[in-house]
Amino acid sequence: MKKLEQIRQESKEIKDKIDDTEERLRQLKNQEQKILKQDIVKRRKERTHRLITRGAILASLIENAEELTDKEIKILLEEATKTKEFKETLKIIREN
Predict the structure, then answer these.
(1) What's the CA gap between 14 and 7, in Å, rounded?
(2) For 56-69, how does the pLDDT look when each residue is reduced to its tens digit (9 = 90+)?
(3) CB distance 57 to 50 below 8 Å
(4) What is the pLDDT at residue 68?
(5) H or E segment and range at residue 60
(6) What is the mean pLDDT of residues 2-26?
(7) pTM for the whole thing?
(8) Which of 63, 75, 76, 86 has the smallest CB count inside 10 Å?
(9) How many CB atoms lie within 10 A of CB 77?
(10) Measured at the alpha carbon of residue 75, what is the angle toward residues 71 and 76, in degrees to the nearest 5?
(11) For residues 33 and 38, what is the distance between their CA atoms, to the nearest angstrom?
């Protein structure tokens, strides 16, 4: 039969391993959260860049676009996207 002191020592070692494992798990969860936040920030920056770029393209194609309201720009785009030429061009671009 094992001595009481030996059993206590083994128990302490097991508890220490459990504590170490729980700490590692906590660290990994924190690392996961950090990575997820970084991904969200990255996607938000990509979206912002895309919106700014496309807005600049639109402004360069419409004469005096800065004088038009957002509503007027929306109306122009809605009408332009209804044309046969627009639909055909979009179809060709998506097929490539």
Answers:
(1) 11
(2) 999 999 999 999 99
(3) no
(4) 95
(5) helix 4-61
(6) 93
(7) 0.68
(8) 63
(9) 13
(10) 120
(11) 9
